[in-house]
Write a structure and sequence with these properties.
Elements (H helix, E strand, L loop, with lengths): L10 H11 L9 H13 L3 E5 L2 H11 L7 E4 L6 H8 L3 E4 L11 H14 L5 E3 L10 H11 L2 E5 L7 E2 L2 E2 L8 E5 L12 E5 L2 H11 L3 E2 L16 E2 L10 H11 L2 H18 L5 E2 L7 E2 L5 E5 L8 H10 L15 H4 L9 H9 E4 L7 H14 L2
Parallel strand pairs: 2-3, 2-4, 4-5, 5-8
Antiparallel strand pairs: 1-9, 6-7, 6-13, 8-9, 10-11, 12-14, 14-15
Helix pairs in contact: 1-8, 2-8, 3-4, 3-7, 5-6
Length: about 375
C-alpha cells in the first residue's frame, strides 16, 4: 500500500544515530543543543527548545506564556486535538475560530469578528494558536496586527510546516508570533522518530520552556532563588515535566536537517504533477496562497460530492482496497466526544465541518515516485466514475 506520508532515512542518518549509541551520552548530551541551533539558525530565530513531541512543545509554550485557569485559548477546529488540548492541560478554557474555505487555515475575518464580540463580553483570548494546515502558513501578518489591537499572544502551530516560507521568510522565525512549534513525527517533513521543537526570539520564554521540559529543575545560578551549595547542586524553581528529547532523536534530526530543502522541493514537484493530472476529475485540489511557500505536508483533495455517484466514505474505502493509503485530516476538534461534553456542537463551525465532509488526503511524500503517483491517479479515476 502506498502510504499518505513516509519518512526517508539514509545511511548518513543511520550513522549519526549509531555514533550516539557508541558515545558517552544517550541523553542530555551535545546533540540536543546542536539540533536546537540547526533549526533556529535555519528559521532565523534566536532560540530553539527541543522536546519529545510537538504536543509537549505546545504545552510548554502555553505554560511559558502564563496560560492558566480562567484564561481563554483559541485555535482552529481543523487540526489535531493537541492544538486545543494544550490549553486544557493548563486549566484554560478553549474556543475555536472557523476556517477560511479556500486555504482551510484559521480565517482572519472570523477571528476579527470573534474578537470584537469577545471584547464586548470580556472574554478575549490570552493565546491564539493559528495552525499552518498541510504546511501552508496562515495570514500571520493580519493575525499579528490583531494581537496588538486585542492583546493576545500567538503560538504558531507549524507542526506541518518546517521548510515552508511566509512572505519569503522561513516559517519559525517568529516575526509575527511569540513562539512557533514544529513536529518531527515520521510522516512530517523531517523526522526524529518522535519529537518537537519550539522557536522564539524571547530569551525569557526560551528559559521558561527549558525549565518546563525538565521537571522545573535548573543548575543555572541566575535562575536559582538562593546560593548554590556546590557543584552537585540544583533547584526545582517551578513545576515542570519530563519532556526531554534524547540524543538519538536529536542526532537523527541534525542529519535530516541537511536535506530539508531537498525534501520540500521534491514535495513541490509531486504537487505540481498532481495539480496538472487531476484537473479533469470531480475533485478540488488544494489552493496555494501566493504569500506562502508551503512545506506540503499533506495534499488534501475535496470530493465534489454533487458530481459523483459514491459517498466520501465509499470513495475512501475503495481507494484503500486499491492499495492507496489515504487518510482524512481532520475530524473537527469540536465534534470530538470530549469537546461535545464541554458544550460544543455540530454546526458551530460550518466551514470546518463542510471541508471535513468532503476531504481526503492522498499520498504525498518526498520519496514518492512518478509511478506511485500514477497509481494514485489511476485509482482516483477508477473510483470517481
Amino acid at each position: 500500500m502506498i502510504p499518505y506520508g513516509q519518512q526517508d532515512i539514509n545511511q548518513a542518518d543511520i550513522d549519526s544515530v549509531v555514533d550516539v549509541l557508541q558515545s558517552d551520552f544517550l541523553t542530555q548530551g551535545p546533540q540536543v543543543p546542536l539540533f536546537e541551533k540547526k533549526v533556529s539558525d535555519y528559521c532565523g530565530s534566536e532560540f530553539g527548545v527541543a522536546v519529545n513531541s510537538a504536543t509537549s512543545a505546545l504545552h510548554v509554550a502555553c505554560l511559558a506564556l502564563g496560560l492558566g485557569k480562567g484564561d481563554w485559548l483559541w485555535t482552529s477546529p481543523n487540526t489535531f486535538v493537541a492544538s486545543a488540548n494544550c490549553g486544557l492541560y493548563c486549566g484554560s478554557r478553549i474556543d475555536f475560530v472557523d476556517i477560511d474555505p479556500l486555504t482551510y487555515n484559521l480565517s482572519t475575518e472570523e477571528l476579527e469578528k470573534k474578537l470584537i464580540q469577545a471584547k464586548k463580553d470580556n472574554k478575549l483570548p490570552k493565546i491564539v494558536i493559528p495552525v499552518h494546515f498541510a504546511g501552508q502558513s496562515c495570514d500571520m501578518k493580519k493575525i499579528h496586527s490583531l494581537s496588538k489591537e486585542y492583546g493576545f499572544k500567538i503560538i504558531e502551530d507549524a507542526s506541518h510546516a518546517i521548510g515552508g516560507r511566509y512572505l519569503d521568510k522561513p516559517i519559525g522565525g517568529c516575526q509575527y508570533s511569540d513562539i512557533t512549534v514544529f513536529s518531527f513525527h515520521p510522516v512530517k517533513i523531517i523526522t526524529t522518530a518522535e519529537g518537537g521543537l519550539a522557536t522564539t526570539n524571547d530569551k525569557e520564554l526560551s528559559e521558561r520552556m527549558q525549565l518546563f521540559r525538565s521537571h522545573g529543575v535548573t543548575r543555572d545560578p541566575e535562575l536559582m532563588t538562593k546560593e548554590s551549595a556546590g557543584g552537585w547542586y540544583y533547584q526545582q524553581v517551578d513545576l515542570g515535566f519530563n519532556y526531554r528529547m534524547t540524543e538519538l532523536q536529536a542526532a537523527l534530526g541534525v542529519s535530516q536537517m541537511e536535506r530539508l530543502d531537498e525534501f520540500v522541493a521534491l514535495r513541490h514537484k509531486c504537487q505540481v504533477r498532481y495539480d496538472e493530472l487531476l484537473i479533469d476529475l470531480s475533485i478540488t485540489t488544494p489552493y496555494q496562497d501566493l504569500n506562502s511557500y508551503s512545506a506540503l505536508h499533506l495534499y488534501p483533495i475535496r470530493i465534489q460530492i454533487d458530481k459523483v455517484k459514491s459517498t466520501r466514505k465509499e470513495i475512501f474505502e475503495a481507494l484503500r482496497k486499491n492499495d492507496i493509503g489515504v487518510n482524512v485530516h481532520y475530524i473537527p476538534v469540536h465534534t470530538q466526544p470530549y469537546y461535545e461534553n464541554m458544550g460544543f456542537r455540530k454546526g458551530d463551525y460550518p466551514n470546518a465541518e463542510n471541508y471535513y465532509e468532503s476531504a481526503i488526503s492522498i499520498p504525498l511524500f518526498h520519496v514518492m515516485t512518478f509511478e506511485q503517483q500514477d497509481q494514485v491517479i489511476a485509482a482516483l479515476e477508477k473510483v470517481l466514475k
